[in-house]
Amino acid sequence: MDGTTVAAIGFGALFVLLFIRMPVGLAMMAIGTWGIYIIRPQAAIPKLAGEIFNEASNYPLTIIPLFVLMGNLAGVSGMSRDLYDAAHSWLGHFKGGLASATVVGCAGFSALSGSSLAAALTMGRVSLPEMQRYNYDNGLATGSIAAGGTLGILIPPSAGFVIYAILTEESIGRLFMAGIIPGLLLTLLFVIAIWLVVLRDPGKAPGQAQAHPLRQRLLALRRAGWIVGIVLLTIGGIYSGVFSAVEAAGIGAALAFVVTIIRRRLTWPNIVEVTTSTLKSSGTVFMILFGAFVFKTFVGFTGITYAMTLWVEAQGFTGMQVVVAFLLLFIVLGMFLDGFAILVLTVPLIQPVIEPLGINMIWFGVLMVIVLEMGLISPPVGLNVFVVKGIAGDVPLNTIFRGIWPFWFAMFVAVILVLVFPQIALFLPNSMFG
Amino acid sequence: MSQGAITALEWIDRQLERFIGLLAILGGIATAGLVLITIVAVTWRYGFNNPIFGIEDLSVVTLTIVAGASVAYGARHGAHVSVDLLSYVFDRSVSRYTDALMRALAAVILALATYALFAKACGIEKACITNNFSIEHRIFYYFLGVALAAYTLHILLQLLIGLIHFNRSDPNEISH
Question: Of the candidates A54, A60, A34, which has an alpha carbon nearest to the alpha carbon of residue B122?
Fold first, then answer.
């Protein structure tokens, strides 16, 4: 059996295992080990052990538990609530302002947590009752939470960027910087989407909060000063080259811990909650990476990426055409597969094809993460939608999915803008120090 | 299945819960340790202008403990990502078979990975030590092996519980 045939059988078998609901990491590990055994039998078991150990002891991955810990501490210390309150006091009195405040709150929380699910869950718990109190349309309310949460994997720190960086051997710090402007752009596009929805049908946001006096708004902003300070220190530290991304994560976690102590929230139940949540989120990432790297080794052994590169060259496709084709493929895959699964399954195949075409892998990473965000809210398997469903038990799933579309199109616009103007993603990493 | 066998399964499940709880405590301490190591490294580097040689080694071995503990704890608490398209296509009459097959296959690959981590620890490394402090990797391979063994046992228990509930709803079925 030649390498291409083994790869084709491997991918087919992988999709079967995923279809029967095997955890993504385990499915990749199983097929990867099988594939390596078929091609180089003596390498299968040592590679299996070696790849698991290599990822478990991969220094840049220290960032995952540290940033997850920081986000969880922000939740229990009340910093995420402060952020929503500040956004609420500045935006709540506009038409659709509570939904906009939710999106802005999610964007702020995303700067402390790399997880989309955590952002949707944390902000959703705070903002949904408020939007329901003002009779917001359920679709708009839940849609803004689900979509706002997706900013978690675009605005640094981002678990998606860390995994992408590990797979492509790009700099985590540069990828983090590349996510900032597109993250802010997407936040703005979400707010515009809310404004357009309410403009078209004012009944979707009939009530609005009373405008707060300036003094109260400034006080709310001051209360959010802790979170803003931590974000500026960590992201600013990476940008200025003072800290590495790992050091920034450690410092951010330590500062969040100090704030938790100052606010007297370091209770035993909170310690247990933070620790277990951190372990669960970290475990999700590590298990996927264990499997992904065994699978990546298998893919490398088959030589399929070389065959794909030759084929693309023979067709005479330009880099942009190939990128657009892959992005369209991700949009379709996003409707059926988890975002992390798409990332770890496709990047080892795609990188050898697009890099020789002169594609900047940082720019492509940003585009890919935005498209994966679209998958997080796309029916039928959009994970964020199910997180929101968990908070809004009385809102039917169909209503949530209907409320998603304006935000989905906002993401689509963001993808086009970053495609056409790569500087949106590349300006900061190209200007950073260190 | 006899009542005695079910009682035995419940006992094993409780012991596994305790064991993974211990791993979680270790993982929590290691996570705090990672924060501490980073703070110490940054303080000495910038505060005292005296970087600590090889402190990355400590981060790396501590991370191994976090990784192992988090994978085992995540398995016990349903954190590992699965794709659920099956339930849109088939109902329980089919998924009870596919779940049993999936769990059996998952147990096989996990058992193989556990074996690999014990039998082939340092198998493909030239020097099985960290770069600076020469901390031997082997014990950390074994720790990962223990964590994956706990995951294997968890999956086997799910398989058996699924078979016991074969004609009813499965308490561990993956769904939205």
Answer: A54
Q: What is the pLDDT along chain A (434 residues), one digit of tens a residue?
A: 788 899 999 999 999 999 999 999 999 999 999 999 999 999 999 999 999 999 999 999 999 999 899 989 988 998 888 888 888 888 888 888 999 999 999 998 888 877 787 888 888 888 888 888 888 999 999 999 999 999 988 998 888 899 999 999 999 999 999 999 999 999 999 999 999 999 999 988 887 667 788 888 899 888 888 888 998 888 888 888 888 889 999 999 999 999 999 999 999 999 999 999 999 999 999 999 999 999 999 999 999 888 888 898 899 899 999 999 999 999 888 887 778 888 888 998 899 999 999 999 999 999 999 999 898 888 877 778 888 888 888 888 889 989 999 999 999 999 999 999 999 999 999 987 65
Sequence-ordered list of residues with C-beta below 8 angstroms from that of A310, at least 6 positions apart, any chain? none
A-chain residues within 8 Å CB-CB of B148? 52
Q: Which of A16, A17, A20 would you mutate first to test chain B, the one with the most B CBs within 10 A? A: A20
Q: Do B64 and A56 touch (CB under 8 A)?
A: yes
Specify the residue for token string 């609901």: A21
Question: The tokens of A42 are what?
Answer: 């003596």
What region does A94 belong to: left with phi over 0, alpha with psi -120 to 50, or beta? beta
